[in-house]
């Protein structure tokens, strides 16, 4: 059985004081054990400078943490990059890889995303690999082709390590726009990804949905058969909202 997972992506938001309040509320609000309920996991992916703060705040909780990117390299002359091995030293379990904001604004190619996923796994980090189509691609009926291509690059690079990833479907047109995919639209793409995972002998990989997830729509989205949880941007900055999503 796939344990549900909700991951908060703080993006480039936060500050020491605001983080402390948010983390405190999350620790207080997220139960320490799952007594009898469906197993569920919660994590936050935060800006690099706050990893130490988050590690100190969350280490005695059941909430995991991670980064929003990771280098494709293990060490060396790569100014500004952060290696998986460094993230491990700060207790990270996860790193987002191939978020659409990085694919678009930092020109990350499918090949680079695959190399980062490989580097994350080699360094002991679970990559949360993001795929998703733009509005133009959806309108051109290219959704299946785009996510299949993005997934295929990762599957080819990881081979038998593919079962160790988390996948996230984030339609670009739904990110930060308030326009969430309908549960049926999400399920359609998740089913496609599940089929591709099954073919690659990685049927148990969790596939999260991301894009304007809120407490108000989380339940309907997470009720879909192939939606195993969420990757939450804006709503992860509000403790009550984020905890309500985690309970959905
Ligand atoms: P929003 O939840 O703010 O739409 O962001 C989604 C996202 O990009 C999470 O990675």
Structural summary, described in words:
By secondary structure, the protein is an alpha/beta fold. The protein has helices at 16-29, 51-58, 84-89, 100-105, 110-123, 135-139, 143-158, 183-199, 215-222, 239-247; strands spanning 4-9, 40-45, 63-67, 94-97, 126-131, 166-169, 207-210, 229-232. The protein has an eight-stranded parallel beta barrel, surrounded by six helices. Helix 2 links the parallel strand 2 and strand 3. Helix 1 packs parallel to helix 2, helix 1 (16-29) runs parallel beside helix 10 (239-247) and helix 5 packs across helix 7. The model has no long low-confidence stretch (mean pLDDT 96). The site of 1,3-dihydroxyacetonephosphate has 14 residues, from strand 8.
Topology:
Layout: E1 4-9, H1 16-29, E2 40-45, H2 51-58, E3 63-67, H3 84-89, E4 94-97, H4 100-105, H5 110-123, E5 126-131, H6 135-139, H7 143-158, E6 166-169, H8 183-199, E7 207-210, H9 215-222, E8 229-232, H10 239-247
Parallel strand pairs: 1-2, 1-8, 2-3, 3-4, 4-5, 5-6, 6-7, 7-8
Helix pairs in contact: 1-2, 1-10, 5-7, 7-8, 9-10
This protein binds 1,3-dihydroxyacetonephosphate.
Distance N terminus to C terminus? 18 Å
Shape: globular
- The low-confidence runs, each spanning 5 or more residues with pLDDT under 50, are none
Beta-strand percentage range? 15-25%
Q: What class do helices, strands and sheet pairing give? A: alpha/beta
Order of helical and strand elements: EHEHEHEHHEHHEHEHEH
**Total number of strands:** 8
Mean pLDDT: 96
Oligomer: single chain
Characterize the biggest β-sheet: 8 strands, parallel, barrel
- Separate helix tally: 10
Percent in helix: 40-55%
Give the distinct bound molecules.
1,3-dihydroxyacetonephosphate
* Cα gyration radius (Å): 17 Å
Q: Order of strands in the sheet with the most strands?
A: 1-2-3-4-5-6-7-8
């Amino acid at each position: 059985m796939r344990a549900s997972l909700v991951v908060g992506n703080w993006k480039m938001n936060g500050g020491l004081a605001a983080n402390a309040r948010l983390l405190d509320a999350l620790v207080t609000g997220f139960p320490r054990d799952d007594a009898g309920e469906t197993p569920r996991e919660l994590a936050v992916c935060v800006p690099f400078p706050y990893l130490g703060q988050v590690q100190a705040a969350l280490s005695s909780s059941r909430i995991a943490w991670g980064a929003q990117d990771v280098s494709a390299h293990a060490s060396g002359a790569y100014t500004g990059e952060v290696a998986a091995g460094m993230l491990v030293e700060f207790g990270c379990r996860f790193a987002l890889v191939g978020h659409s904001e990085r694919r678009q604004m930092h020109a990350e190619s499918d090949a680079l995303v695959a190399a980062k996923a490989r580097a994350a796994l080699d360094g002991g980090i679970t990559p949360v690999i993001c795929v998703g189509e733009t509005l133009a691609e959806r309108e051109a009926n290219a959704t299946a082709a785009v996510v299949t291509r993005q997934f295929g690059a990762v599957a080819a690079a990881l081979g038998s390590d593919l079962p160790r990833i988390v996948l996230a479907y984030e339609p670009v047109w739904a990110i930060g726009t308030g326009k969430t995919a309908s549960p049926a639209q999400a399920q359609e793409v998740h089913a496609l990804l599940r089929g591709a995972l099954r073919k690659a002998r990685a049927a148990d990989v969790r596939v999260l949905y991301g894009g304007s997830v809120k407490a108000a729509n989380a339940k309907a989205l997470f009720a879909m058969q192939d939606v195993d949880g969420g990757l939450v941007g804006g709503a992860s900055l509000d403790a009550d909202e984020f905890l309500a999503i985690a309970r959905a």
